[in-house]
Structure to design on (280 residues):
């Protein structure tokens, strides 16, 4: 494993701006057909200005970011809070840092602090992953 | 207020197929271009038995339930007021293309904050493959806006 010492940063992943097609494709592929993400009429009735991104789309981006760093076969735990709504046109960047080495279910692992942020620095997802050494 | 007596409620268990074409569509939707996620031989070369489902795909399997988000109907929730608060996955194995996954889901907790302006529903799901191995556990918190 490379770049696994405590304090080392994971290679960042910056996504293309979120657009309506992104959300339509994710709705179809994920099976999450909640109209709040794809139907502006519905979103407005629910009190939103427009549709907004699925939280799980950004979590999937964080998943790409993690498995780009280490094989998914080493991923033991992956969690996050959704701390802000991701809107249309937002540019999301995934970043993270190795914060600890620990034993997880009898296996030596690394704990990684991960986040997704908007271009203005607002964190949208804050979480952690545990990856086997 | 959401009915807290539903804590412990177990939703109907169901079994669903992990289809290779759906995994390719999912990879496309999230911009995943690593061939491990779409190409059988690339997956094998990388040490996987078959094409792996990406880390968050388990939740896409939930959506294949006979009823879309059955928690909404059970608790009488309006989908327009539901937000996703948090999500956790623990991986005990790997979900692969071609697997048949059985999903159990239950309500672990219901609580409120800010004098009931926000309510929270915690759900736990377990994913078991055709060999009877539990491959993934997930925990999610839904946030319900009452204000």
């Amino acid at each position: 494993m490379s770049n696994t010492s405590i304090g080392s940063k994971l290679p960042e992943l910056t996504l293309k701006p979120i657009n309506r097609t992104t959300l339509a494709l994710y709705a179809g592929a994920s099976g999450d057909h909640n109209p709040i993400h794809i139907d502006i009429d519905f979103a407005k009735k629910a009190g939103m200005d427009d549709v907004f991104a699925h939280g799980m789309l950004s979590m999937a981006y964080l998943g790409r970011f993690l498995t780009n760093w280490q094989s998914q076969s080493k991923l033991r735990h992956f969690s996050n809070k959704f701390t802000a709504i991701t809107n249309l046109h937002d540019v999301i960047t995934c970043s993270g840092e190795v914060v600890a080495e620990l034993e997880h279910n009898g296996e030596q692992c690394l704990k990684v602090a991960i986040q997704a942020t908007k271009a203005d620095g607002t964190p949208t997802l804050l979480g952690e992953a545990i990856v086997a050494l | 207020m959401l009915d807290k007596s539903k804590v412990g409620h177990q939703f109907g268990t169901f079994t669903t197929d992990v289809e290779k074409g759906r995994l390719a569509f999912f990879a496309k939707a999230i911009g995943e271009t690593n061939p491990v996620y779409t190409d059988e031989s690339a997956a094998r070369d990388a040490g996987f038995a078959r094409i792996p489902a990406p880390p968050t795909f388990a939740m896409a399997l939930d959506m294949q339930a006979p009823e879309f988000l059955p928690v909404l109907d059970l608790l009488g929730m309006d989908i327009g007021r539901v937000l996703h608060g948090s999500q956790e996955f623990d991986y005990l194995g790997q979900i692969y293309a071609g697997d048949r996954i059985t999903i159990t889901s239950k309500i672990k907790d219901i609580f409120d904050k800010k004098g009931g302006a926000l309510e929270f529903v915690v759900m736990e799901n377990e994913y078991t493959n055709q060999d009877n191995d539990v491959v993934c556990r997930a925990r999610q918190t839904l946030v319900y806006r009452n204000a």
Q: What stands out?
A: Residues 55-69 of chain A form the longest helix (15 residues).
